[in-house]
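Hi Y.,

Following your request, here is the sequence exactly as I used it, all 745 residues.
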Amino acid sequence: MNKVKTKEKDKKTGKNAQKRKRLNLIDLIVKKGRWIETLFTAAVIISAICACFVHVNYDLSEYLPEWAPAKKGLNVMEEEFGYPGTARVMVGPVTLYEAKAYKDRISEIDGVDMVMWADTKTDVYKADIFIDYDDIQDYYKDDYAVMDIIFEEGDSSSLTKSAISQMQKLTGDKGYFMGSAVQNKSLNETLTREISIAMAMGVVMIAAVLCLTTTSWFEPVLFLLIMGIAIIINMGTNLVSGTISFITFSVASILQLAVAMDYSVFLLDSFTKEREKGADPVTAITNALHKSLPSILASGATTIIGFLVLMLMRFSIGRDLGFVLAKGIVISLITVIFLMPSLLLRWGDRIKRAEHRSFMPSFHGLGRLVYRVRYGVFPAVLLLVVPAFVAQNMNAFTFGNGALGSSPGTRVYEDEQEINSRFGKSNLILAVVPNTNMVTERELTDALEDLDYVKSATSLAGTLPEGIPEKILPKSLTSLMHTDGFSRIMIYVKSSDESDFAFQCSDEIRNMVNQYYPEGAYITGVIPSTQDIKSIITEDYNFVNILSILGVGLVVMISFKSIVIPVVVLIPIEVAVFFNMALPYFTGENILYLGYIIVSCLQLGATVDYSILMTNNYMEAKKKYPEKARAIKHTVSRSALSILTSGTILTIVGYGLYFISSVAAIAGLGHLIGRGALISVLMVLFLLPVLLTMSDPLLMWEAGKREKIAAAHLMVKQKKKEMGKRFSLKKQEKEEGNDDEKKKK
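Below is the corresponding structure, written out as tokens. Let me know if you'd prefer a different format.
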């Protein structure tokens, strides 16, 4: 009879069934701890091996969508001629004849396809009296010679890197090197070392913060071990993509460490409280999982949403970074939920033995200060937020591969400044045109060379003497510039790779090429690619930003079952984003537009948890302290430690990248992350309490409404339970009556 009642009760109460399912999962996690540890050990070993085979890409143009004009040109050129790496080499002081000797020896290096120098225009072996040095000053002057190098393979090729190493060995102290292939080689050599240093420094600093904010010397070890396992698995699973961008490679692991640390803290905090109540370890971890799981999943969901939105960018580096970061958060959640309980049971006694007194203050004074200055904070923020919103859109942005340049003080930067100061700037634009008419090709080449800003324009038709047919030349020579379907024209322009003047030059060259080849031609290279990146990524920002706000707001709304709370928790974080992004305008910094998008989404997704935590604590405090003043003071003092711990960790990680990386793009990204986390902490601690007190009537009205709905649901459930009991009793009476009749018969 009891079994019948239990079955009836379970059918009537769906929530209880869901609760039992969750408990079954928790029981599985607790009971199968050793098996889970073995599984994670195998995953770490396999992932560590797989991580060695993940390639890193340094070329932003690779992430252009297929329909972008420069990307179409790159695809055609790669299919027809290959996608060559480029470099610029200066040697000096040397005589003209010594420079010629260097040029010839560089041309013979394996991996070098072509060397453009003065001897393509002038016979340098003539007597000095017959050489017009004004004609060759773009390549030789003041005892220095500069050469434009085109490699057989791409910038990232091992053959190209080997060729650069041989050139550096050949030129010795007289050599100066710049260009995309040189930057690529330098990045490849320095980035891994710098990220390792930043990671090591981050671990040490985070451990120090955790030692101060926790109450056991062993807790930081456990936290860092859990995060280390999650990071290795995330790095190894990047093999599914095969290649990741240099930005993803640089920031993904250290951001995963900083952002996902909270989940471990939530679970350990809950476990400690259960142990303090006197529960045995198994019961404590079971209850801790049951209580902390909703908070952990909700916190993870807001961060994942912020990263997943990046995947919707048309500039697909967002998909690359968003996928890796979101995957990292998911793996961190899985590691905390499944592995950490087993380690807590295994090492619970060590944590207990290593306990120490708390080093942190009570923060009651901070609560009183926040409440006292509330009338000054809100007007000040209101006064500054509009100029900040306007200023963030007026920053000096960079978009292309120029952002990969090294910082002042590095050899690559110094070489680049030395070459540009002597010979001016130079960049290669490639025109890929139909191979239909040698006369048209020659006319276009001559017209391009007549442009003031064009240093040289090289094509097969422009190089061959008039009257010499292409057919008499060996295929190995002509294939460098001609295929059956297309011709390649190399145009060196006297400009940087990213400026209004460079874009103007690119547009004029494109129009000229289209005039000579109206049937269709392609313009590609660093400058056209940067133009396409700029036009695409600026349109991505508004879409990505709005979607991330809506996504995070939806998660908060579902978690709290409220319409007012999402607005309240998002305002301080969005204000912090505006302030963070406006500061570069006032300080005159250039920032990578891609970093602008990434950090806007990251700052929202990672720091909105601070707002959620404080709002949740305020709603709990209002049940105990109806007066707003007391509730706010209690809320701030209770929330400050968790917010400061998490915010400090993210700030340390960001500024670690900023101070350590010599790559301007990575350093700039770190600066935005570190400063953004710090501003978010200040806005949550000082602005959010003001918003909570202002919206208190609405919050309490919603809370009352939720309580009424919950009470109504409870009443319905009780009625259903009573009806079920009555039905069971009637059924029982009927069965007993039937039994009596059977006995009488």
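The domain at 365-394+562-694 is CATH 1.20.1640.10 (Multidrug efflux transporter AcrB transmembrane fold).

Thanks again,
Q.
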